């Protein structure tokens, strides 16, 4: 059989070859990620609609989402310590349990005074899951496999989001009609996906292997050899997070308020968007092997801007939905590529802390801008934060190219 490196196989065929090379540990992680991904997809697509159904305004919702990002910030560096000091099966399993408890908490503690703390737990748990993933991949794959493994992991999680987007919307609609409203239907659906997150513990428990550096302490992680290098990896992520936090958490409310769509319709739009995103995740490594990682990242960020402009100004549902799909596919295509690039350019003993600092930069920016975004949207609508986001995305693309133009061939097939 010819290798994928020398023969341009179709997308499905190339991934079929690559998946067979993934280690057993990587496959177990992917199964658990799929189960957690269904829960995460329900939160991503429908949580704001649930908050709105129980009477919360955009500013309050923004404060809750900001608390979720604060939980992410709190766990970004500790997650690096955990994956190096404890077996991966324990770290991923604890994250799955914590996330399940948080989702159940949204339903069982529907009080605006306490929801920020529940959101903080959700952010901490899911951050532990993703922050630990990159160093785990580096230890359980070779350089040829991991470009595809990063993309496939995101594709698996996004496929689960598609299922959640449609499934939760359908359950909310059916049960809401029978039990007395959308709020009741969403409550039941969230309890179901909390249970699915809990089942992720079983594949995670099957992961084998000890921690990589059991005796390292926090100061060992912070003794980075090249803070300038890490800073160049963190800054573009922080700029994108700053822009994304202004509007991305509120796109479901955008369709609800500007076009008066119901949860099932919104869930369908998000499901199709995630299908495009899955395609982007799978195509990303193939494009990067031809153009290089940095060129692919910069090109996709810039290409998303016209679609964001259409979202900002359109008063027609059809074009807005298409723009929403294309913008999401282009921006999300480069996330696994950026993570893989960061892991390749730093030393092995700095991979965990670098990934955590990138997540810290992105989520700290997101935490701040989500609070601002909710405030602005409640008073000025959706157009202004979208325009600010466009400017920040453009700056991030330019900064990325300027920082890494001398390594723009990294990832390109030779």
Automatic annotation (TrEMBL):
SUPFAM superfamilies: MFS general substrate transporter. Keywords: Membrane, Transmembrane, Transmembrane helix. InterPro entries: MFS, MFS_trans_sf. The chain crosses the membrane at residues 29-51, 63-83, 90-108, 114-137, 149-172, 184-206, 227-254, 266-284, 291-313, 382-404. GO terms for molecular function: transmembrane transporter activity. It holds the Pfam family MFS_1. PANTHER family: TRANSPORTER, PUTATIVE (AFU_ORTHOLOGUE AFUA_3G04000)-RELATED. This is MFS transporter.
